[in-house]
Amino acid sequence: MRPERPAGGDYADGMADTPPGGAASSWTAPDVPPPPGGAAPRMPLRRLGWRRFLVLALVVLLIAACAVYMLFVLGSNLGPQALLIGVVAAILPVPVLVSCFLWLDRYEPEPLKYLIFCFAWGAFVSTAASLTVNEFFAARFADWELPNALTGVLVAPFIEELTKALGPILLLVFRRREWSGITDGLVYCGLSAVGFAMVENILYLGGYGYASGVDEYGPATGAQQVIAIFIVRILLFGFAHPLFTSMTGVGLGIAARTADRRVRFLAPVAGLLLAMMLHGTWNLLPSLAQATGQAMIALYGYLGVMVPIFFGMVGLAVWLRGWEGRLTERTLPDYVRAGWLTPPEVAALGSLGRRHAARSWARRVAGDAGLKAMRGYQFSATRLALLRDGMRRGLDRRPADRERTVREERELLDAITAYRSFFVGRDPQAPVGSWDGHRYHLRFPDGSHRPVDAPDEPVVPIPVVLAPPPPAHPGPYGPPGWYGPGPAVPWPPGAA
Questions:
Q1: Is residue 209 within 8 Å of 225, Cβ to Cβ?
Q2: Which of 192, 206, 290, 406 makes a 20 to 30 Å CA pair with 464?
Q3: Within 13 Å, how many C-alpha atoms sit on residue 102's CB side?
Q4: Chain centroid, CA 153 distance in Å
């Protein structure tokens, strides 16, 4: 990793302004530690109080009730055979779409339970609410002798985008710490939209496709219509619902990483309104083409408006994918100066390619246990960078939240230290050395111990251990208070 400015007295000076650690010590590099036994450490589990259990039970019951309702409605309207065909055809693209969103979240994967929650919310709760509201207004428009297309243009975009986003919004309100930024917003909202599109496609493929074809001309026509709808709705325009709801995801992601209350409110609202406008425009184009008899209106609208927006969002998502890696390079140097990490470890976290190389190295020197420990180390280090970035942004306003952040930081530092013990200092091809927050202390073949400054571009990885805490600051976490949410204290001039 290249520093933003030339390195000064030590490498940490060239990386970031960092809080005080310990002074240079005269200790010598320790011997290579013996391989540890036991399994890789885990972060402490949060206790599930009765209130959380009650909320969880209510959410599960709501999703289950909506799932039963949608199964009953679809089964009654389509019949068993059409329902089965619709389910099979609608599920086919789901693994591909889900994999695309999970691909975006490689640096710090979100908990599986929250991903399942968002998908299930969109598939059952959002579809149940949207179907009920759309049918109600369709009946009202028919009573008022208004075109049925108004439901798709004026009602469906509002209720569908609102209900799809409601699940991720609840997750942001009650689990804000699980949001690392816009990438998480795209993932959570995208999975909700994929779940919604899956159930909606069951209705189109099974009802408007197979069932209507069978009623009119027979099974062969029904199969042909299923294929035609599959090509149009899934292969050509399967990105529609995730594209709409991703606008809300961008707004929610911005709100998750800002301390400004106005931005926390306005960003999700703006994203939701933009999602509704895009959805309404999408539904309006075929209605205009049908009303005017000009099919090219829909084609020009899709190619001239929706496709550029789609590729723009793809480009944004790819750029944001590396944001967490770049964040580690900007934030974790604080812990380099304090002696918790070494410069090459920060460099090894900056991209997915470097992380993969570090895992391969850990497996080579420490086997499967080293590989698992390196994976846990990388996730914990990324989480630590996000936590530190949140401190700098002032995301925690209440004293209880700040105390919880400090406690979580300590837990992450403990976990990182335990993970490092599985692979650090075990490469027989590298010299034995340690990092004290300023420079390396290496043991050379002649038996001598000498300090060595870190290079401007550190080799990845340098398997060294960390210095013990300096006597001036006893305790396992270094000098008290440096890791808290307050501003960093400048490094004392002349320290070496």
A1: yes
A2: 406
A3: 13
A4: 32
